[in-house]
Each structure stands twice: as C-alpha cells, then as structure tokens.
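Entry 0007
Protein: Molecular chaperone HtpG
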Amino acid sequence: MKETGSISIHTENIFPIIKKFLYSDHEIFLRELVSNAVDATQKLQSLARQGEFTGELGELKVRVTVDKEARKITISDRGLGMTAEEIKKYINQIAFSGATEFVEKYKETDANAKDQIIGQFGLGFYSAFMVAKEVEIWSKSYKEGSATAHWVCDGSTEFSLDEPTGEHEKAERGTDVVLHVADDSDEFLDETRLRGILTKYCKFLPVTIEFEGEVINNTDPIWTKQPSELSDEDYKKFYHELYPLSLDEPLFWIHLNVDYPFNLTGILYFPKVKDELQLQRNKIQLYSRQVFITDEVKDVVPEFLMLLHGVIDSPDIPLNVSRSFLQADAAVKKINTYITKKVADKLSSLFKQDRAGYEEKWGDIGMFVKYGMLSDEKFYDKAKDFALLQNTDEKLFTINEYTEHVQTNQKDKNDTTVVLYTNDAEAQHGYVAAAKERGYDVLLFDQVLDPHFVGQLEQKVEKTSFKRVDAAPVSHLIEKDETTESVLSEDEQTKLSDTFKTAIANDAMHVKVTALSPQDAPVLITQNEFMRRMKDMQRTGGGGGMQMFGAFPDSFDVTVNANHPLVQKILADGGEKLAKQAFDLALLAQGMLKGEALTQFVKRSTELL
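Output (structure tokens):
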C-alpha cells in the first residue's frame, strides 16, 4: 500500500537550518551520503559481532556510480538496510540521528560501535538536495522477511513511501540512494569531478569505496595502527600517499595515539622547513573517524606547528552541524596543548639520544623550533634545552653551552655577557674578522625570524646582551674599564669632524670623532643596535609598536678613528676628497656603496693612486 505524508522537522534540534544553506560547499553531499553508507555497513558488522545478525556478510563495499545521460548518481551499500518504518523514523524526522540511537543501544556491549559510527546530527542525508531535484531511497533491511522500501522526495516537505513487489523489489539487503541531478548541478555528473571529491573526503574510510569499478580508498591507514607494527618505510610510504607531489622525504615523525582524556590518533611529519615563513602547500589534514573534514586546523594545532605535515583524527573535536568547521572549546584546547607537548618531547628525545643526528637536521628544523619558542611560552620552556645556536665557525651550542663558552672573554665592565652576532657573515666579514682577532666568538643569526629570536633571548637569558658585530667599533662592542687616549686636541677633533661632515653632506650620517686603536679602521659606519633591531623586526612581521620604528628614516653613526694615520693625514692636508674616499671605503665594507656613488668612488680611487 502506498503512503503519503509530511516530513516532520524537529526545529528544536536543528534550529532554523534550511537545507540549501546548511553546507557552505555543495560537494559535501557526496561525503555525507558515502559516510552514511559506511555507517550502515559498520552497523551490520557490529550486529554480527553481537550475534544479532547470523547471515553471510558477503562483500561489504560501498559503490558510487554516475549515469550522465539519465542524470543520476547512485550510492549503494550492503549494510543493514531499512524497513519502511525505519525510513519514516530516520529520514522523515530530520535531526533524529540514527547513529546516536544505535550507539546508545550498543555502547555497553560493543566498545567499537561509538568510534565506528560517523553520523552524529542526522542531517547529512539532506545535503543531497543541494544538487538533486529529486532523491529516491531503495532499501531492504537485513531482518528476515523484510520487504523493499521505496522513498521519494523532491526536496519539499512532501514524500511518498511504498513497498514495491515483483520486478521493482530489491534483490538483496542494503540501501541505494539515487540522486536525480538538478539542472544547475551539471558539474556533479562529471566522472573526474566526482572522483576528485571521493578522493578528497573518502580516501581513508574504513569500508571499501568503489567508483565506476575502481577502489578509491585505503581502508587501513597507518595512523590506525600501533607504532610497533610499523617500519620507517611504512611511514615514508604513507607520507607520499598523503602528498603525492612532494619530492622530499620527511625528516622524522611523531605517531599520536591517546584515548584519555580525549581520543586522538594521527601522524605528524617534520618536513624540511625553508628559510621563509609561508603557508606550506602540504597542510595537516583533519579527519573524524577517517572522514576528511578540513586542512584548516589552526584551532587544533598551534600556529607554529602549522609548518608540519600529516594527519590528525579525532572523534572528540567538536564540529559545526555540517561537519565542515571546527568549534573551539575546552576539548580543542586540551588537544592543542597535548600536540605541543608531544612535539617538544620528540625533539628533546632526538637531541638527547642522537645529538650528532639532531645537529645534522638543525638546518632544516631550526626555523620551526625558533617559531615555536617565539609563539608559545610553554614550548620555549622545553625548547631552550634543545634549541641550537651556530657560530661563524659552524659549531653548534645549546643556549646554556654558548653563554658558558663566551662569558670568560666577553663580559663587559658591568659583568654582563655580551653575545656578538652577524646576520650576513659575508657582507660583514671585516667586522667578524676584527672581533675574532680580539678572541671574541660571533654567532650567525641570518634567518628571517632571527631579529625576533635575538630579542627573546635577550629577555630570557639573565645578564646577557646581544650586539650585532657591526653595531660599534670592535673595541666598543664590549665595554671594558680601559680607555684609549686621543692623539688629537679638541680643536683638531672639531676640525676633523667638520671636514667629514662637509665631505659626506648627508644628514642621515652622524659623524663623531673617537679615539680607537691605530689598528682599527679609519672610518666605521654603524647603526644603533636598538633602532636597527626594531626596524629588522618590523620588516619581518613585528606587530604593534614595531610599526613606528619602521616609519623612522635610517640613521647611521660615522665613527672617525682619531688615532688612525690616514685620518691624521686628512686633518693635516684638509682633504675633503680623501675624507670622502675614507667614508666611501666604510660604505663599501657595509655593502652600502652602490650606483652612481660606487662609480664615483672607482673614478676617485684611480685619481688618488
């Protein structure tokens, strides 16, 4: 007997959700319908384990087919199927979740049931109407003697439900969902488009998914296994399964596996991190019970860990009603904290167990570790023991090791350890060489984050200051109680200063005559350490107050060495031309002499020879 009626919409459960606006992306319909088919299959397996189903399970596949001419997409399963009464209960009452009821019924007798059931809202089926003008369900329950149930709806609240016989009767248990594709959804009749959607969302579903005769999923991804079952090759192979276009091997990985206080599995890979901060094309993928949800995981994973690649799977991550977006809550924060701790523990373990191997990888992971230290206070507390500093001799030290290494020779008159560094060892070679001649050590901070990292270290490491090696004449970098007397009188120093100011004729260059060693350069160009560092930080993404420093014009100190023979010759001869030449030499040493000024310098050099 054919029945007609109206679908009961439980607004107290779904609020004012209209099917056309439930999902932001229409392609989600295929994920939802295939997930439902997988649910039905796993429910039957659960019943078999309980002994409630004693028949033959047979081949449990979900099949997706498309008939472009007939404008039909069909999703078929051999799961437990539905009777007409069950269709009225689970389909006609929107937001009554069959999965939820099933889990409640069997949670005590089948511990696997909860983790294996995907649906939680009872809304996924209705995503079909985003692309279909009419949807049919042909279903036959696993229960003995069940009749075929046939349900039809055009997307309104009206439906028809009957139990066909004869040639229209369904031959075997399970469900076929048939979508009659709407005129404005032609794209979903294209095989390539459908295969892409299935590969994106269903690649790791736990039941075989077959599309036009081809299996598109891996039902047993390695994150569902125990680490003891896996080899390094298994992890590498899976990495390339996730990112088939990646040419690099991962450096190492972390296998996540926790069931309390939340359920979380996954694998995070450490890629080679380049010396640049850009979004990686290979993002971390978030799954819920092996269904792909999103690769936008900023709430689950701390920002600095977004440089990692891999998979996270958790049924405890709260999603919005369309399972498309995360909803931040306490559980998400706990997962976020847990992942940070696991990453820190992994790095610490690698450092302690194989320091030589860790040092070999430092060039690839240093950026990541520094980013973490700058972003997360708790990560800094752990990472300070395995973060490495590299000097210009390519030796690596922990932060504590380095401060101990230099404190004997690099303490100033206030008992503060002065750490010298260069951000360009080649361009600042002369300054580095001068510092090393004095027995000083020089660190290399030439990565994009280093201006911020230097500032952080200066705040964290007690009684330590950091100076770029070209921030002052070498004898003034580390101030001692020693003083150097000038061979010039005050009048001579004033005259010398005026000569250089006239020769330079640049308000951004602040000339000062200072008594240095005769072995030091005749003219040095330096920039105030604080201002230069603030401007560097602003250029590399410093926020807030850094912007004001970026707006300031560049300003440099020109130190004229009163005790250098060349400077004394300039004073004696009153030679502005020679003063300009000495100044240009200092510019050249800083890589600041370019264009017309460089051409004039070369021409003047020829004349002076």
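Curator remark: The first strand starts at residue 3 and ends at 6. The first helix runs from residue 11 to 14.
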